[in-house]
Every structure is written in C-alpha cells, then in structure tokens.
Write a structure and sequence with these properties.
Blueprint (H helix, E strand, L loop, with lengths): L5 E5 L4 H12 L3 E6 L2 H12 L8 E5 L5 H15 L4 E4 L5 E2 L7 H29 L2 E8 L10 H22 L3 E8 L6 H4 L1 E2 L14 H11 L6 E2 L3 H12 L1 H12 L1
Parallel strand pairs: 1-2, 1-4, 2-3, 4-6, 5-8, 6-7, 7-9
The structure holds NADP nicotinamide-adenine-dinucleotide phosphate.
NADP nicotinamide-adenine-dinucleotide phosphate (NAP) binds next to helix 1, helix 4, strand 6 and helix 6.
C-alpha cells in the first residue's frame, strides 16, 4: 500500500486521458495509464518522470477496454505495483458521425464495444478492489450530448446516455461501499477525437463552437476526484447546452442536425 492516492485511467495515450494522467501526477497522485498504443504511454511516462520532485509515479499498461481479460489483468498489475486503486477514470472512448441506416456495422460495433463494453469492463474490474480496500471514486467521462436530440451522431450520443444512466444507478448501488461516482459531462475538447471519429467524413469542427483545451478538462477531473459531486459540467456553455437539451429538445435537435449532417 502507498500513502499516495492511485488513479487508474483508461485511454491515457492521448487527449483528455493523457492530460489527466499528467495533472494527477503533478499533484503527487500515482497513475496507472492504460491504452492500446504503448509507445504513447511510454512517451507520457518520460514526460511524468521529468516533472519536478514530488510527482506521482506512472505505470503504463497496454490494454484494450473491449476485452474484459485485459482490464482484469491491468487491475491486477496495478494492485501488484501500488497495492490499491483509489480513483478510476473511465475515459477511453471513440466517436461516430453519420446516419444510423448508412453506418457500417463494424464501426457501430467498435463504438459500442469501446464506449459501453469498455466502461463496463473497467468498472467491473476495479469495483471488487475498491470494495476490498473500503472505498474509492469512479469518474465517468460522458458528454453534453448524453441527453441531446442528436441526429447524425445518434449512436455516439446514445452510448453516452448509457454511460450517464449507469453513473446515476451505480452511485446508489455503490454508496454502501463508500465508492463515490461522478459523471463528467464534457463539452467539445481539443484532442484526437474528431480526427479519429468513425463514419461519415465532413466537417471536423462543429462550426465555430468554442473548444476547450484538454488541460481544462483534466484539471476538472482532478478537482472532481476530491469532491463528491454527482455530475460536473465545466463551462457555463456546457451547462446551458444541458439545460437546453432538457427544456427545448426539438430546437437543440434541429440545430444539432445542421451541425452534424
Ligand atoms: N473531445 C471531445 O470533444 C469530447 C467531448 C465529450 C466527451 N469526450 C470523451 O472523452 C473521452 C476521451 O476522448 P478524447 O477527446 O481525449 O479523444 P482521443 O484523444 O481520441 O483519446 C481517446 C483515448 O481512448 C483510447 N481508446 C480508444 N479505444 C480504445 C480501446 N479499445 N482500448 C483502450 N483504449 C482505447 C485511445 O487510446 P488507444 O487508441 O491508444 O487505445 C485514447 O487514449 C472519450 O470517452 C470521449 O467520448 C470527448
């Protein structure tokens, strides 16, 4: 066991996950970073090792969230190394754009297996450890589209609706075990996400929609890890979108359609 906290982050090889690993390490938290691209995790390892004294240690583990075995083995390796996992950031995810009827089934399956199965495998691997150690904090990385009428990005939005719904129920299920659950409702962020998005091509940017740097999201996640918030939206704009999704879904849906089509 270590006296420092340990964060386990899926999808730490780029974007939000990479930056979150860095921010946690800067604050002295040990980090387990998982992803498929081990070279990127090694790069992150080098960057963390060059931080000023007092930084957290980094353990890179190659693991595919689509496979339960990978996640179970990664958690075992993390426990063998650090003795505990205090924070899970279920971050790994992919995007898709395009009409459902035109979508390639392989793309749909990749999205569902990453954004849904991947989150389930991560949570199911970590929760038994957290129960054993007497508590923990699970942070889901969802999106402001989770409750949006989102034509032409419907599969992605539905996958985030799954994540946010799961967060809500798990919060009560795990309360008795002192495991807190926070749902991060993230708005548009600068990362590799758009370049790698599956499905229809077209505009990479959603018009002139303001975009956040990964640092802002990562700092928000680190902040959330020491606060017992149910849900966190970082910008006033994101809170406005979430409210609009609830109050005027058709209006938001028509606007979204113009952007995503
Ligand atoms: N960017 C945005 O505007 C935005 C907005 C709201 C929410 N989000 C959410 O934020 C999360 C992170 O996205 P990002 O913006 O940081 O995008 P990103 O730069 O593309 O990062 C995605 C991460 O997920 C990992 N990943 C994908 N498939 C995986 C798999 N099968 N197994 C393990 N890791 C996998 C990638 O690693 P490998 O490819 O190396 O495996 C990568 O580290 C996602 O859940 C996304 O839905 C993003």
């Amino acid at each position: 066991m270590t006296d420092k906290k340990v964060a386990f982050i899926t999808g730490a090889s780029s974007g939000i996950g990479y930056q979150t690993a860095l921010e946690f390490a800067k604050t002295g938290v040990h980090v387990v970073g998982t992803a498929r691209r081990i070279d990127r995790l090694q790069q992150l390892h080098t960057q963390i090792n060059s931080l000023p004294d007092g930084h957290g240690e980094f353990l890179p583990i190659q693991a595919d969230v689509q496979h339960a075995d990978d996640m179970n083995i990664a958690v075992e390796q993390a426990i063998a190394h650090f003795g505990q996992i205090d924070i899970l950031v279920a971050n790994a995810g992919v995007g898709h754009r395009g009409a459902l009827a035109d979508a390639n089934w392989d793309d749909i399956q990749t999205l569902l297996r990453t954004n849904i199965d991947g989150v389930l495998h991560s949570v199911r691997a970590v929760v038994p450890m957290m129960k054993k150690q007497g508590g923990g904090h699970i942070i889901f990385i969802s999106s402001v589209v989770y409750n949006m009428t989102a034509p032409y990005t419907s599969i992605y939005a539905a996958s985030k609706a799954f994540v946010s719904s799961l967060a809500k129920s798990l919060r009560l299920e795990l309360e008795v075990d002192q495991i807190h659950v926070t749902d991060m409702l993230v708005g548009r962020t600068e990362s590799e996400f758009n370049d790698k998005r599956m499905g229809a091509g077209g505009r990479n940017s959603v018009g002139r929609f303001p975009i956040m740097p990964t640092e802002k999201v990562a700092k928000g996640i680190v902040w959330a890890s020491s606060h017992k918030r149910k849900a966190v939206a970082l910008r006033p704009l994101d809170r406005l979108i979430l409210l609009g999704n609830m109050l005027v879904p058709t209006l938001i849906g028509k606007r979204a359609m113009r952007h995503y089509k």
